[in-house]
Amino acid sequence: MGLFSKIKNMFKDTKKEEDIEDVQENVATVEEQEDAKNKRSIETDAKSKNNRFVEKQVNSTVEEVVGDTKNVKIYEKGLTKSRQGFVSKLVNLTSKYSKITNEYFDELEEILIMADIGVNTVMGFIDRLKNRVRAESITDPSELKEIIVDELFIIYVNDEVLSNKINYNSNEPTVILFIGVNGVGKTTTIGKLANKLKDEGKKVLLVGADTFRAGAVNQLKEWSEKVGVSFYGKEESDPASVVYDGVLKAKEDNVDVVLVDTAGRLQNKVNLMKELEKMNKVIDGLIAGGASETLLVIDATTGQNGISQAKAFKEITNITGIILTKLDGTAKGGIVLAIKEEVGIPVKYIGLGETKDDLQVFDIEKYIYGLFKDMM
Asked: Residue 350's beta-bridge partner residues?
């Protein structure tokens, strides 16, 4: 079974919510019937207990399935623009051609490039697709739908074991550095992640080390108050000293996770590199193994410029993962595939909306589903 078929099954799974509601209604009906009956000693008690047991089982199933369904629907909603702008063109292309021709491949290539997948990535993809068409003697474009999805999935995975999880320390605070140019939504993303971690039961501290950008420290403080987590920061102070004091505070207060906002002055690579090196040296002196993660925040709406930023930051520091913000605001959702292919860094989180709950752990299958559901 190809990935496309699995996605179809995932789509079917979202219908479970309606089925569960039907079961709940049946349970409620049984309870009403039981209440209407005369009280019968042992038999009635036994039936009541059985109904309560059934209801408990249904409620447990509801929480499990609806939780996953909610996440799938967030992907589906957040990728609407990309789906309408990118996938609708693929659907129209399939309808336009009755046979696979060179003209078909030319148009497919253009559609993929316009979706911000990247020229180099697209060229390799088209070559692989042509090879499969020849090897499997495919002539009907409609037969390529599943193959296109599978091959795009392969671009991202590339036979690697990818982790979208944060590497947490077991005995000391987990320190996560956030880097990225100004305006990509870095501070907002930190606030949203703090909210997510707090909901998971973790004690979180935000550290404002972007000390010279006007309002940056105060903006992060406001987010800490909004989501109900601790904060440390000083404006117009040495960023490394702020990180030092912040990590010390985290150790004293038994904090689980420290989220550090840093400067994003990419136009001065040398100074930025020295600043990040100094911060990492400070963290290394306080936490065994140093910072657990360095996450690069990129605005998905900037397209190929975002990929250029990723390449530039990769030259000056070790990046462990990428957070793509504002993915709901672009019709070019292919940037997820392009970044992994061209920079070799996995996407760990994506922003799919304005609310604090719209930051999602990146899931390649949910992403493929949200992007390609209209091709089913």
From this structure: 324, 360
